[in-house]
Each structure stands twice: as structure tokens, then as C-alpha cells.
């Protein structure tokens, strides 16, 4: 049984550790959209700097700022931060749905109505809620029920569809478990970790694909893993999260190995690498993210300008 007990300082430290892994993974993965990058993957040669981060990191920073200020997901505060970050830097790679929603919020619209209006009134089931969720799991790593609640709240600001929220829950619970592994509170057994994540995700496509991921052993070829689970190419939560967690849970002790495995599978590599990085940075240790990768990556700021 998990006996991890966190102080507020512990929570902030773990959350920032996860953000560092997420941002570096995001910027690392983003570089593999460039022509000829398959040669770098084949030789495992890190791309030359400069590595710019994307909306994955920009939105994760907003989550971290909200948690630092409130100690919980305040959805109105978070929506405002998302909209401000978008208005200041709209070219970070936001998808069409996110651009529409954040533009509406930045111009005074209510985030609840804007999120629900997407995709014919069904809301988004995309992977955007999941890509930024690992720091939520890190912050509440000693309470999986709280992780589930807060992750769902964090996703709902932009993803009204239950599948979009389920993706955030899956990643956040995985991050919490990775933090427990890093604190030696849990053995790093992938089947047990998947089982716990599955128990916290509601019934639906996400849970179905996570169950499939749990059945694929570590020696499964990446071709077969991608064929079975997807790799984020559809930009949907259930096409992204199971693959990302498979890469993470089978490489919990090595940030580099997890990231190289992730990008080798192709697909939406900035988002899958952000998810993997945000999780494995918690299990592999405080210094798991290579210093040279952090130096190659564009810096981000956690300065809180909200008064």
C-alpha cells in the first residue's frame, strides 16, 4: 500500500520535476518533425539545438502556476492563464479546436460554453488534456483519488468530451505512480502500474486501449505496438495515451531510453514525448533529464503575473 506523504514543498518540487521532463520531451520530440530526422533516430543522435517547445509546455506551465497559487485546479484561473498564454504566443502549435476555444476565452467568452461547443457540441476528445496532465499527478502523488479528480478538472477547461478527460486522468495517475516508484514506494512492475491506471479511468475507448497496452510485453516490436495502440497520429486521447504509457512504463529507470523509444514509433512525437517525459522524469530520479538536453531546450518561465 502506498504510504507516500508529501509536504507542500514536496508537491511543488515533484511538479516542477515533472514539468522539466515534460518540456524537454516536448521540445525534443518536436525536432523530429524535421526532414531527415529519421537518420538521427536510427543512430540515436540528439538533434542539434535550438529546441523550441510547443503548446504542450505552454499549457503545462499554466497548470503548474495554477497549482502553485491555489493548491488545486481552479478552472476559471486556469482558463484565463491558457487564454493569456495563447494570446501572447499564438504560434506555439495549437490545434484548430484549441485556437478557436482560446480565442473565444481571450475575448471574454465562457470556457464552459466554448469547450462544449467544439465538434458539434460533443466537446474535444483530443490529446490536449493528456499532454499537460503529468504535473497534476506529481502534485497529488500521495492521493490517487485526488489525482483523478484534479486531472479531470484540468482537462475539462478545454476538453468537454469524457474521452478527452479520461486521457488526462490516465496520464496524471501514471505520473503519480511514477513518483511513488521514484520514492521506492512501489515496485516498477508495468502490469501492476497499468492495472492501477485502468482502475481509475472510466469505461470507454481509453480504458479499452489501456487494457490492450497492458497486454503488450516489453519485447513487443514497436511496429506491433503502434499497430495495436496508435501513436498519436489521430491526435485523439485514446490514440495517444496508451502508447505513451507503454513507452513510459517499460522504461521507468531511464529518461533517455523512454524518449528514444517514444520517438522511434513516430506519430505526434512532441505530445507523446511530452507525456513520456513528464512521467519518467519522476521515476528515473531528480537528475534523469540529461543536462545537455535541458541546455538545448528553450527555457520557460514560471513567473506568475496574475494579480
Model regions low in confidence, pLDDT < 50 over at least 5 residues: none
Radius of gyration over all CA atoms, rounded: 17 Å
- DSSP, total strands: 0
What is the CATH homology-level superfamily?
A: ADP-ribosylation/Crystallin J1
By CATH, the architecture is named: Orthogonal Bundle
Q: Globular, elongated, flat, extended or rod-shaped: what is the shape?
A: globular
Mean pLDDT: 95
* H-E string: HHHHHHHHHHHHHHHHH
Q: What is the level 1 CATH name?
A: Mainly Alpha
Strand content: under 5%
CATH topology, which one? Answer: ADP-ribosylglycohydrolase fold
- Major beta-sheet overview: none
How many independent structural domains?
1
By DSSP (H or I, 4+ residues per run), the number of helices equals 17
Query: How does the helix and strand content classify structurally?
Result: mainly alpha
Question: How would you describe this protein?
Answer:
With 307 residues, the protein is mainly α. The protein has one domain: ADP-ribosylglycohydrolase fold (Orthogonal Bundle). The protein contains 17 helices and no strands. Helix 1 (8-30) packs antiparallel against helix 3 (55-70) and helix 10 (162-182) runs parallel beside helix 14 (237-249). The longest helix has 23 residues, at 8-30.
Please provide a brief summary of the model.
This protein is mostly helical and 307 residues long. The protein contains 17 helices and no strands.
Amino acid at each position: 500500500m502506498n504510504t507516500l506523504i508529501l509536504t507542500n514543498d514536496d508537491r511543488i518540487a515533484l511538479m516542477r520535476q515533472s514539468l522539466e521532463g515534460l518540456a524537454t520531451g516536448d521540445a525534443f520530440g518536436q525536432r523530429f518533425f524535421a526532414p531527415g530526422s529519421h537518420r538521427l533516430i536510427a543512430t540515436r543522435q540528439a538533434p542539434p539545438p535550438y529546441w523550441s517547445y510547443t503548446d504542450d509546455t505552454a499549457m503545462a506551465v499554466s497548470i503548474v502556476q495554477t497549482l502553485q497559487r491555489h493548491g488545486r485546479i481552479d478552472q476559471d484561473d486556469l482558463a484565463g492563464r491558457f487564454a493569456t498564454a495563447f494570446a501572447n504566443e499564438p504560434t506555439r502549435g495549437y490545434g484548430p479546436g484549441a485556437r478557436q476555444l482560446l480565442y473565444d476565452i481571450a475575448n471574454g467568452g465562457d470556457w464552459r460554453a466554448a469547450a462544449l461547443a467544439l465538434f458539434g457540441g460533443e466537446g474535444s476528445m483530443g490529446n490536449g488534456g493528456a499532454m499537460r496532465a503529468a504535473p497534476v499527478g506529481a502534485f497529488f502523488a500521495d492521493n490517487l483519488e485526488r489525482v483523478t479528480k484534479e486531472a479531470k478538472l484540468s482537462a475539462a477547461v478545454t476538453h468537454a468530451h469524457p474521452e478527452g478527460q479520461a486521457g488526462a486522468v490516465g496520464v496524471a495517475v501514471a505520473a503519480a505512480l511514477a513518483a511513488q516508484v521514484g520514492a521506492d514506494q512501489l515496485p516498477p512492475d508495468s502490469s501492476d502500474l497499468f492495472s492501477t491506471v485502468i482502475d481509475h479511468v472510466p469505461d470507454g475507448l481509453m480504458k479499452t486501449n489501456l487494457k490492450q497496452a497492458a497486454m503488450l510485453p516489453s519485447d513487443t516490436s514497436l511496429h506491433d505496438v503502434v499497430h495495436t495502440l496508435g501513436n498519436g497520429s489521430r491526435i485523439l486521447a485514446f490514440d495517444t495515451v496508451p502508447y505513451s504509457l507503454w513507452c513510459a512504463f517499460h522504461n521507468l529507470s531511464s529518461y533517455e531510453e523512454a524518449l528514444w523509444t517514444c520517438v522511434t514509433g513516430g506519430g505526434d512525437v512532441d505530445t507523446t514525448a511530452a507525456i513520456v517525459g513528464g512521467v519518467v522524469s519522476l521515476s528515473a530520479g531528480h537528475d534523469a533529464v540529461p543536462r545537455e538536453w535541458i541546455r538545448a531546450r528553450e527555457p520557460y518561465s514560471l513567473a506568475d503575473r496574475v494579480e
